[in-house]
Amino acid sequence: MATLLRSKLSNVATSVSNKSQAKMSGMFARMGFQAATDEEAVGFAHCDDLDMEHRQGLQMDILKSESGEEGAEPPLEGDIHYQRDGTGPLPPSGSKEACSELSGQGKPKITAWEAGWNVTNAIQGMFVLGLPYAILHGGYLGLFLIIFAAVVCCYTGKILIACLYEENEDGEIVRVRDSYVDIANACCAPRFPTLGGRIVNVAQIIELVMTCILYVVVSGNLMYNSFPNLPVSQKSWSIIATAVLLPCAFLKNLKAVSKFSLLCTLAHFVINILVIAYCLSRARDWAWDKVKFYIDVKKFPISIGIIVFSYTSQIFLPSLEGNMQNPKEFHCMMNWTHIAACILKGLFALVAYLTWADETKEVITDNLPSTIRAVVNIFLVAKALLSYPLPFFAAVEVLERSLFQDGNRAFFPNCYGGDGRLKSWGLTLRCALVVFTLLMAIYVPHFALLMGLTGSLTGAGLCFLLPSLFHLKLLWRKLLWHHVFFDVAIFVIGGICSVSGFIHSLEGLIEAFRTNAED
């Protein structure tokens, strides 16, 4: 009887794995992975919520619900439900069962060009609008940092992927891990087998929530500067933007939002081209003498965080590489995407600063003439509002799985009822998260400071510190001396930049918070 039961459970687990893999394959095939990487890794958790402890905590719920309906019709491909229906929650693609199917013949894969497009979306998003402000406080050193950050982030992306592989008994290099969280847990094992994953998840949640706050801040800022004659303050515009975003708490999946992903990205590229074209039209008035090697010691560390944040993409790279048709092309793809990003960001930041010099604002489109500023800013606001649901849902999913759906290890009761519907108090918590982003945007409406803080805290950690540390921990016996030197150098430099940028950004935010509280 026990043998039959074990055999039955094994068959059910295999069925769950196949259905889960087909569902994830449909998502990647239909969205080209774009919905998850539309902005600065705003879908990091959506693409990379592969924490093993979360998966194990959910496995029994999946088996129970599936065993009662083996003959049921499988769910539609690509229908990503965050609210569970009768079939239970969608298991992440990185589960051990799914890993066994990773190389399956029927699994759709993406080409190197499609992978490059998604990386480009992540590191060429609308937050590049803050780069000219970084040049304002850094001069030529700011330009150097744009190049340096591109080189380092490209390198750490490659070594992070190297940590996914190990040599088996036959001397073959095989993929034994599937996510950033898996790598972190492996580095902390056996003494603290889940500590690394928790740290990565916390950093991930902070970055996603801060991204949501930045969208609200930039929406209020752009609307206020587009219509300065209206009796509406920036705080009021932020409230209006949040009122538009409140329905995000009621959405069950991202299918409707993902349809706008490509259009939003293309629109942003067009806006960047328009800004550069306007700057080029004023080339005769460029203030070359304003670009100096002198730096503002107090504000330049904030610029470091801004630049690092604009390159953040590491958290979803393991999932992306695992879905490439030819993973051997990953290194080449990383090279040309970061070279292109470096050139475009450097040119954009330089020509914009040369055009407005000391008058450069935190969001560069605010410097445009009023005749075209309103049109450009309205498009940017639309893009920000359409991009907001991606990081919001990613953050909600990680929070729900870790706090409410982690089996016996959950901190709070399950926020879903027996019929799979979200409970009223669970919906209230989602709404509270939207309101929290509004409150932060109201009390600290400083785009550059928030972006610098996020880049210094989570951006530097996820892009500089952790990849180099994990690479040394997992593969140090096989590393050449120059790899060890690079890893140590990146860890030290990244740590110094992170601490310095975080302290200065935090000081600026505290001062801004006090000023707004007094007003």
List keywords for this structure.
two-stranded antiparallel ribbon; transmembrane helix; mainly alpha; AA_transpt_TM; Amino acid/polyamine transporter I; gamma-aminobutyric acid:proton antiporter activity; synapse; 519 residues
Notes on the protein architecture:
This protein has about 525 residues and is mostly helical. The chain has one domain: Up-down Bundle (Amino acid/polyamine transporter I), CATH 1.20.1740. It is built from 20 helices and two strands. It has a two-stranded antiparallel ribbon with strand order 1-2. Strand 1 and strand 2 form a beta hairpin. Helix 5 runs parallel beside helix 15, helix 6 crosses helix 15 and helix 7 packs antiparallel against helix 15. The longest helix is centred in the C-terminal third of the chain and has 38 residues. It is globular, with a radius of gyration of 23 Å. The chain starts with a helix and ends with a helix.
How many β-strand runs?
Answer: 2
Our count of helices gives: 20
Major sheet summary line: 2 strands, antiparallel
CATH architectural label: Up-down Bundle
Rg for CA atoms: 23 Å
Query: What is the H level of CATH, i.e. the homologous superfamily?
Result: Amino acid/polyamine transporter I
- The domain tally reads 1
- Per CATH, the class reads Mainly Alpha
The termini sit apart by: 73 Å
SSE order and pairing:
Blueprint: H1 2-31, H2 44-48, H3 52-67, H4 96-100, H5 112-123, H6 131-138, H7 140-162, E1 165-167, E2 173-175, H8 180-188, H9 195-226, H10 234-245, H11 255-258, H12 261-281, H13 300-309, H14 317-322, H15 330-356, H16 370-387, H17 389-403, H18 424-443, H19 447-475, H20 481-518
Antiparallel strand pairs: 1-2
Helix pairs in contact: 1-3, 5-15, 6-7, 6-13, 6-15, 7-13, 7-15, 7-19, 8-9, 8-19, 9-10, 9-16, 9-17, 9-18, 9-19, 10-18, 12-15, 12-16, 13-19, 13-20, 19-20
